[in-house]
Amino acid sequence: MSVNIANKQTKIHLIGVGGVSMSGIAELLMRDGYTVSGSDRQASALTEHLAELGAEIHIGHNAENITDQSLVVYSAAIHEDNPERVRARELGIPQIERAEMLGQIMKDYEDPICISGTHGKTTTTGMIAQILMDCGCDPTVTVGGSLDSIGGNLRIGGKKYFVAEACEYHSSFLSFFPKYTVILNVEADHLDYFRDLDHIIETFHSLTELTPEDGAVVYNADEPNVVKAMEGYKGKSVPFGRGSVKDISHDGKDLYSYTFTLGDKETNVKLGVPGKYNVYNSAAALEVACLIGLDIEKAAEALSHYTGTHRRFEKKGELNGADIVDDYAHHPTEINATLTAASEMDYDKVYLVFQPHTYSRTKSLYEDFVKVLSRKNIQVVLADIYAAREVDTGLVSSKELAGDIDGAIYLPSFAEIEEYLRTVAAPGTLIITMGAGDVYKIGENLLKK
């Protein structure tokens, strides 16, 4: 269904309004003059913030929350049998999914910039936002994480630049209207939705076709699957990768520097976030800066000010002299990148507590998880799989996964994991909690106690 947001529907209701993306949409709608109501299963800092801004917030999904609204927006987690969706159908109120609503909002901006890829989206979105802010461009930013630089998951700025993290799950980004599209990487993931890798590649190709003639696609020329996704695209395209990056160096701790090349011009770049993979994320951000005509030296300087996203190698504190870091990585490629960065740091011992995310991902990428977690210099501790939207069918388990990883151990509860970590925490030790679920609570509990 297509809804023209320019009609200014007077009342819009969002089901699942406490989600990171949905709360941002609600706030954008209020900024533009709409009356907003919303519901969620439980109260949170995000729902409280929206209430303070004037939104009518309901805790619990109930049919009586739907009255005279002109439009209902729902997230992918909200099914057709949700009582509010049922009531909206009975009243004949139009309903659209979250991504379509975000796409409609995006149409109100001159230069939407959409950052896509299997991983690295949030970080690269943050980098582009930092560049635009430091260069005085006043962007509006929506991101699937929390950035200190924008004070959360949303920055409401002017109507020229709209910077959005574009997720491929359920082909959501095909509801967007980018002028500039970034494709960082394309790998097998979300196989509970996509048929196979070819289906994923086809979906990313469809994203390129949404990019208008006066826009451009910035793509990773070193990634074969990205190159496949670009096949047949006839618009303007800008590659990034090893061809635009040289003289990569490491400071001996955790930060990288390199030389960014654009034609015959070379610019020195020093990053403010760890990990060699961020060299290439930042190169993509610089290519976007060049496309829209920003000063490349100022853009490079901005990258040194970008200090990262919450849950992306985020230092939480210290326990008995050991550093505790939390990381959102949940795909094998992300895990490998994070562990490679950790191994380059000057720690005597690294302990990784990994919580696999969803049974379908763990099963479909099982051998890849075994491979990336089998590291001689890192002690792996497996927590139970975080179910998220799925039901345990008994086909795969963390205990089974631990059995196939040399030296790995499985502990069935957070309490047991915390007790184990207390016994090993010491100066010169790095403890990483990793996963897209609630594994971060382990580090927080340790620090509280």
Quick overview:
This protein is an alpha/beta fold. It has helices at 20-31, 45-53, 83-91, 98-106, 121-134, 197-208, 224-230, 277-291, 296-305, 332-343, 359-364, 366-373, 398-403, 414-424, 440-448, and strands spanning 11-15, 35-40, 56-59, 71-74, 95-97, 111-116, 140-147, 152-155, 161-165, 180-183, 216-220, 237-240, 245-250, 255-262, 265-274, 314-319, 322-327, 349-354, 378-382, 409-410, 429-434. α6 packs across α7, α8 (277-291) packs antiparallel against α9 and α14 (414-424) packs across α15 (440-448).
Would you give an account of this structure?
With 449 residues, this protein is of the alpha/beta class. Helices cover 33% and strands 25% of the residues. It has 15 helices and 21 strands. The strands form four sheets. Strands 8-7-9-6-10-11-12 form a seven-stranded mixed beta sheet, with helices on both faces. Strand 7 and strand 8 form a beta hairpin. Helix 1 packs parallel to helix 2, helix 1 packs parallel to helix 4 and helix 10 runs parallel beside helix 12. The protein is globular, with a radius of gyration of 22 Å. It starts with 10 loop residues before the first strand and ends with a helix.
